[in-house]
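Following up on my earlier message about Muraymycin D2. Here are the inputs again, as you asked, copied directly from the submission form:
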Amino acid sequence: MFYNLLAPLASDWTFFNVFRYITFRSMAAMITALVASILIGPRFIAWLHRIKCGQFIHEDVKTHAAKAGTPTMGGLLVLTTLLFSLLLWTDLSNYYIWQAVLVFTGFGLVGLWDDFSKLRHHKNRGIPGWAKMTGQILVAIVAMCLLYTNPDYSSRLTIPFAKDINPDIGLLYLPFGVFIMVASSNAVNLTDGLDGLAIGPAIVALLVFSIFSYVTGNTRFATYLLVPYIPDVGEVTVFCAALTGAGLGFLWFNTYPAQVFMGDVGSLSIGGTLGYLALLCKQELVLAVVGGLFVIETLSVIFQVGYFRWTGGKRIFRMAPLHHHFELKGVPESKIIIRFWIASILLGLMALSMLKLR
Ligand code: 57M
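Thanks, got it. Here's what our run produced:
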């Protein structure tokens, strides 16, 4: 809004030029979302308690018993502060900002449906798996159609480390993109099992994507770093920054011992959006490194289930996803969380260094 209202005044008052800069608006968007979350968080959590959004706790991991009654659906706080910050600081005429908002809210609504259904039913039973998956796929199809039909966007893949190989997969890019968004959404959801465990690595990934989107939308940097240049994608840096701020604000309350969980409304929306950002910045495959921690958690489940079926009852881990394995080995929760964060920072740095290694 400030961009649309105040930047045109720069022709008379040069001070207003500041509202043109993506870098300035990104910082402001991050600060706005963060401060807004910290300010409204306590009232929001009290409201969740009032409407009885307490999380059902499984009894198989004993240390989680103390978490009983912690409200869930904190993802609504992320959504509210994100939208507020975007309204103030983004160029509201930018096509990609609206697409990103659509992806976030679309996946969020599927999650919200699941969260509400879990509250209504006994023992955490949400909507059926097929219904959740169908909702996610529908949102991803809409997002992919919008991306694919954009003349500035191409169906060429960016291959890490190979500057001259950009295979055009044509129409296959549509199902590929849908897979990336849905997989990413579910991977973040699986990871969301300890205080701050999902939001920490998500913040790291968002910071990486804020750099990727800035580079992709800037002719000079894109040419220098040999990444595809896509006009107007630079504005998405402000979106990434706002979501980083909203995520940090949520972490303020979700850090161990958590006062609130994000719920599926948070995990599905953040995961789906990370997938969308990777597609938008043409860093589809690098997402596996940026979100490497989510990939590792998901692989631990796939291997655990596969090995269990193959051997007729044997397990690789004490329990999957991987964080449960360490919990059952007696590693304190805060230690697992911080170490997983460190691993995600390492992966984020590796992903960034891939910009230069071509
Ligand atoms: C998300 N949700 C948490 C909270 C959060 C296929 C299978 C691997 C699926 C997986 C599963 O159900 N994953 C879905 C995990 C739950 O958190 C809620 O869910 C939201 C996210 N969707 O926002 O609202 C619990 O996680 C803890 N938590 C925190 N802090 C947080 O900030 O402590 C969450 C957020 C909360 C709280 O205790 O109640 C969850 O784990 O349910 N299933 C599993 O992960 C199960 N694993 C399993 O069965 N493994 C098997 C096979 C199938 C691989 C095996 O290893 O043999 C475990 N889930 C639980 N206990 N709760 C089993 C042990």
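One observation from looking it over: Residues 55, 57-58, 60-61, 64, 67, 72, 189-190, 192-195, 254, 258, 261-264, 267, 301, 304-305, 315, 319-321, 324 surround Muraymycin D2 (CB under 6 Å). Hope that helps, and feel free to reply on this thread.
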